[in-house]
Amino acid sequence: MLDVRTQAAPIGAPVPTEWTRKDLLDTDTLSADEIALILDTAEGMREVRSRPVAKVATLRGVTVVTLFYEQSTRTRASFEVAAKALGADVVNLTASGSSVEKGESLIDTVRTLEAIGADLLVMRHGKSGAPYLAARNTTAGVINGGDGTHAHPTQALLDLFTMRCHVGDLAGKKVVIVGDVLHSRVARSNLWSLLASGADVTLCGPATLVPRSLHGAAAEEGRCTVSTDFDAALEGADVVMALRMQKERQEKGLIPSLREYIAGYQLNARRLALARPGALVMHPGPMNEGIEISPEVAHGLTSVIEEQVANGVAVRMAILYLMATARHA
Amino acid sequence: MSDRILLRGGRVIDPGANVDAVLDVLVTGGVVARVAAGIEPGGARVIDATGCIVAPGLIDLHTHLREPGFEQKGTIATETLAALRGGFTTVCAMPNTSPTPDSAPTVEAIREIIQRDARVRVLQIGCVTRRREGKDLAELSELAASGCIALSDDGNPVANARLMRHAMELAAALGLPISEHCDEPELSHGGSMNEGRVSERLGLPGQPVAAETTAIARNIALCEMTGARLHIAHVTTARGLDLVSEAKSRGLPVTCEVTPSHLFLTEESVFGTGPEPAYETNAKINPPLRTEADRRALLAGLNAGTIDAIATDHAPHAVEDKLQEFDDAAFGISCIETALASVLTLVERRELDLVTAIRALTFHPARVFAIEARIPGAGRLEPGMSRDVVLLDPGARWTVDPARLASKGKNTPLAGVELTGSVRAVVFDGMLAYELEAAGV
Description:
The complex is a heterodimer.
Chain A: H1 32-49, E1 63-68, H2 74-85, E2 89-94, H3 106-116, E3 120-125, H4 130-136, E4 141-147, H5 153-167, E5 174-178, H6 185-196, E6 200-204, H7 217-220, E7 224-227, H8 230-233, E8 239-242, H9 248-251, H10 258-265, H11 269-272, E9 280-282, H12 295-298, H13 305-324
Helix pairs in contact in A: 1-5, 1-13, 2-13, 5-6, 5-13
Chain B: E1 5-14, E2 19-28, E3 31-36, E4 45-48, E5 53-56, E6 58-63, H1 76-85, E7 88-93, H2 104-117, E8 121-126, H3 140-145, E9 150-151, H4 161-174, E10 178-180, H5 185-188, E11 193-194, H6 197-202, E12 206-207, H7 209-226, E13 230-232, H8 238-249, E14 254-258, H9 260-264, H10 268-271, H11 292-303, E15 309-310, H12 319-322, H13 339-348, H14 354-361, H15 363-368, E16 389-399, E17 418-428, E18 431-435
Parallel strand pairs in B: 1-4, 1-5, 6-7, 7-8, 8-9, 10-13, 11-12, 13-14, 14-15
Antiparallel strand pairs in B: 1-2, 2-3, 5-16, 16-17, 17-18
Helix pairs in contact in B: 4-7, 7-8
């Protein structure tokens, strides 16, 4: 979580950047220009989604394989809808019921899918770094759909897209991410893309669930901080993002009880009032309403949680489009 | 092979005898016959050692030979050849084989393979507990009687403090050291690398420093209580080293070793050198590579004499053991052929004192496991006794190519790294057993 490098340069007008990457594994090495390219492309995709026939044939003949080693509803469905909206062929694979259950290694699985004709591979895996191993061993483009407790770049990009729609330029804006930051791939990837976009980020949660230390330029500049005091952290916040609180954290002794977690870190109406008026409420889902977020806030006036899901399709269309048409460096 | 060899004009470093001078070494009749200036060859094969270092054969206190049970990773034949090429003439075999050497018959069965296949001297380390399971003690006196040099459960720390107490009481009576992987499993639980900035960055479960230090503190307390010789395997943390230093200053029979990997590398190797993380499984080792501050503390501890020995923890693995998701990949580095060069590279960088390093590879490890009592002259160049000599070229530069390693384990994080220092020749048991081809000298 450390080494929060600053890439500066706010996201603004369309930039002439070209997409040259084979893979999208995290947001950590994306330049502000590359992020802007994705988000600007997503604007166009959102327009496509608003048409009566919300479908184009741009990626006809392109085969997208979703390979999910972990369960997922929204990410897998979102990618499938996005790929189909662009006219691509989609093959959905899960670890259960596939040769993975027969002990096939990740590398063999990926090479098999490449031989079958997969152009793009959307992968979710329970082990951090697994998509990197896959990407090194296939010529297909690999999109990380979430790896262990490491990264979830498409979620971060759709979050950023949603923030940009409401807050505009994120330079100097304050984003508070609250919850189990330490084990959150969403928080990690959001941190990189937010810092690249010029936002200030506060990571907040119980002492057992936040990074112990932050290093690097952004930390030194005070643009990224860690806090265990949620009330204090909310002061001046433009965006508040609550993370899913997994019950197993209590079982592992990381928090004394959900009751105590709720008392200290639930995003509710009283706390939201501590943030800047009109502060955006976000959540990557799936929510535990009544635990990390109160229902009134989750469905409140400034909540954009459902919009995040809708934007997810447009952003993933943009990513699939850019990657399928990329000229690799 | 030749049994009359004159190594002429090399810098002879024999730390056990406080010798560091340009001298000739004559090997004949199976032993080092003379160490002196201007020895006449008298028919011996002369090897020009000018510009090179002549030292006792190296001793490794911590080697994984994999046989029996894991022959796909390495065999006694392949790994002892790798040891020979790395300059090691005596290796102490860790007991994480299958079957485990937890009884005399198993030790005997392994010894038969060693006698048939080994290219260097292999001393067996016996188990502390049956099958290294940490539940019931192995028959320690039987292991001592069958020639085991030390006791260890290798990578399985003896988690039960009461069991460790009794093991140490028995080991003390037998005069055998216990070599312990000091780790509190409840703290390191599931960790695949050092806990800290890089693990947080990569989203990998980490092993905190306290997992090592609490175990070292516990075992030192038990050492004090029982009087057993405690050898702390591969110390990796600055704070852990402080505890060892303090125990030594109180006169406790505590010794420790460090691996060349922990002296040479840090946790950054897991991330790699590129902008994107590499999740480099060849840098996955247990205990894990730590921080630069720890690395510097280990070097300082070695230079100051707090660390007794450099031991390789050579851990060869099959390709598929490492070509996996980071959490699933096996722990360990194949390093017995790069160990000496890593150390000499640190010497060249002035991070490590040469004579201290040679001492930690020869005289001191011989003392730590009392090897001299069984192998006269081991770790020294004692005329009439010592049987092993190594000839090192401290200036030779070479680039590590895993494909060219003799070890079955190609799992090195040093692939493509240029190291300084090579093994030119090895005299084992009084015979010229290895000579570097195309040495160009």
